Description:
Blueprint: E1 5-8, H1 12-24, E2 28-34, H2 41-45, E3 48-53, H3 64-74, E4 78-80, H4 90-98, E5 102-103, H5 108-115, H6 117-126, H7 141-151, E6 155-159, E7 168-171, H8 174-192, E8 197-201, E9 206-216, E10 221-233, E11 236-242, H9 249-265, E12 269-279, E13 285-291, H10 298-305, H11 309-317, E14 333-340, E15 342-343, E16 349-350, E17 353-354, E18 357-359, E19 365-368, E20 375-376, E21 383-391, H12 394-407, E22 409-411, H13 417-424, H14 427-430, E23 449-453, E24 457-461, H15 482-492, E25 500-504, E26 509-512, E27 516-522, E28 525-529, E29 532-533, E30 540-542, E31 547-553, E32 559-564, E33 598-599, E34 624-631, H16 642-650, E35 653-655, E36 663-667, E37 687-692, E38 697-701, E39 704-708, E40 715-718, E41 722-724, E42 740-745, H17 748-764, E43 781-785, E44 788-793, E45 797-800
Parallel strand pairs: 1-2, 1-4, 2-3, 4-5, 34-42
Antiparallel strand pairs: 6-7, 6-8, 9-10, 9-12, 10-11, 11-14, 12-13, 14-21, 15-16, 17-20, 18-22, 19-21, 23-26, 23-33, 24-25, 25-32, 26-31, 27-30, 27-32, 28-29, 28-31, 34-41, 35-36, 35-42, 36-39, 37-40, 38-39, 38-41, 43-44, 44-45
Amino acid sequence: xxxxxxxxxxxxxxxxxxxxxxxxxxxxxxxxxxxxxxxxxxxxxxxxxxxxxxxxxxxxxxxxxxxxxxxxxxxxxxxxxxxxxxxxxxxxxxxxxxxxxxxxxxxxxxxxxxxxxxxxxxxxxxxxxxxxxxxxxxxxxxxxxxxxxxxxxxxxxxxxxxxxxxxxxxxxxxxxxxxxxxxxxxxxxxxxxxxxxxxxxxxxxxxxxxxxxxxxxxxxxxxxxxxxxxxxxxxxxxxxxxxxxxxxxxxxxxxxxxxxxxxxxxxxxxxxxxxxxxxxxxxxxxxxxxxxxxxxxxxxxxxxxxxxxxxxxxxxxxxxxxxxxxxxxxxxxxxxxxxxxxxxxxxxxxxxxxxxxxxxxxxxxxxxxxxxxxxxxxxxxxxxxxxxxxxxxxxxxxxxxxxxxxxxxxxxxxxxxxxxxxxxxxxxxxxxxxxxxxxxxxxxxxxxxxxxxxxxxxxxxxxxxxxxxxxxxxxxxxxxxxxxxxxxxxxxxxxxxxxxxxxxxxxxxxxxxxxxxxxxxxxxxxxxxxxxxxxxxxxxxxxxxxxxxxxxxxxxxxxxxxxxxxxxxxxxxxxxxxxxxxxxxxxxxxxxxxxxxxxxxxxxxxxxxxxxxxxxxxxxxxxxxxxxxxxxxxxxxxxxxxxxxxxxxxxxxxxxxxxxxxxxxxxxxxxxxxxxxxxxxxxxxxxxxxxxxxxxxxxxxxxxxxxxxxxxxxxxxxxxxxxxxxxxxxxxxxxxxxxxxxxxxxxxxxxxxxxxxxxxxxxxxxxxxxxxxxxxxxxxxxxxxxxxxxxxxxxxxxxxx
Length: 801
């Protein structure tokens, strides 16, 4: 039986892995995807991709009719179910065969035989495989209590269907068994449509050992060694390895022989895994269950035995059984770590959101379905990647695992990466003595801070922002008040450009998972650390577990800045960590902070120390602002009258309530204009053909002036009579609705001196005398030559027409 097109009836990293295996055999692959998985790499890598329905698995990946319809529409001759979803559904396997599709996996009767754990125990018993003391299916609670007394507490109450640690409960006495019996039944019924439960003796110091088998369906069984899967949290595997450490040759042989015997007893076909409970104290092992599918951890077996299990499955489904004609000898040691989108510090709560950084080491095997820019959905299993390392021996593999985990970076959402690093460095793992409860006894070392309340608009910004992309429409972003952000970093001993928080009007509430040193600068706010007032512009020690509440900005200013020693650990995007919310990139998830976010902190530079910011160098907040500008790029006589320019500099403007990082709107006198309309550019005199804007330019949109901010447009069709000089840009970040603004015309030399003096003041924390050279209004046009007009656009830009 042959086929040329394979339907991949799964998602995530296993779908990507199946597609690669198919391509290696010259097969065409067809991927299925739900609405939530449109960005998944398996969709990108397949030869064809078919949308199968909404995000909910029941309406997409678990809908047998939709899967079979997609197979028919694509002309597929085979279906690979991967693991999870329909992989151990015998009815699905039967319907595939009835539709003329090769089901790449065990036969339906194998799935049925081992699908219910109590039936699997019966088969194991008939074939002499060691069993834990246990029961058949229980009829009621009274029977369970009687049997538990016979077996002896503690016992494990288990659902006969399903897996993944769902429907299992350890009961130490009759009271616990009575309390948990009904809930385990409900879990089993709800998750697996089968409420049957049974009891097994609970082994307190247990290891989870499994053996990989592969059968031809006619009695031949390949036994490809054992794996240790004891590193588990809540019965969910986290790290797996092969060969299992600290087993004698006799134990390995017994484990493998029992698995082979079980496979031969049913003429098992394709990939399967026989799982055991291994008593770490006695060295005895007991049958646990058979997984009638490919396992998540199959990669470590492939590395050590030099095989392609997925390739084996596809070849066997085509009638090729030549893989049984040779022997396979293990070599070296392999370890796999599962990377989950979850927060170990919050009881392993799954996390979803935008991945802003995904970086894996090149010297490790990576199985994943994500890349930077992919949205992780909350609809499926939280595993986003598997990291596999191979070494000459276990010591070598453990060292490579630590190095690979340290080199891996995933940003935007919480993952278990730090927890994996902690496990890899633990004594129990390092010496290969993990048991299934080891991780439960390992305290999670959390770092960073949790966002309990996000505030009005809190974003990550760095100085000077995202430079070099203005010509393609990407603004610099960065802090609206750069002086306050730079001083916040100086206060905690950071480089002045380290990522910090920009807080607008109302601040966040942050709970610190680890000790930190922070500083608040900018607009004064009422901030409390566990109820105690926090002084502004002063480094403050925060202990793990404490909560910092940044309240409302007081009467002066709009934006407050929070720096943490070391700086926030944010991936750079286009050279900056600054958030551009309109573009959806940079900062934390490309957006303002939300309740539930977790912020991490970079290691601090020990060569610099925290310091108090002297009052003389702190930016002065007011309600009556004077802002220095240079004339241009558009002024009199081309666009405005001389009287308009005099009014512009002689008038007091009021800050409009509709102001933001894109621009600050002002209320003031309307110009008379030097022309009746904009000509070909539009009816209003403010209209011109699109021209490049400068940051801080005063843009007349109609009759209303707007000071363009760091997130503003790079191109527009309105005239700009003046541009804020760089040394005064910080002021637009603190303009508050209702504040008054007067523009002061300066010359270019003063503008340059102002910036130099400002930078020196931040670097030395010593006050500098800032000289003003107020000048009368000057022409905006610097020169005209050869049909080119050169217009002054502040002290950083020149507009060339």
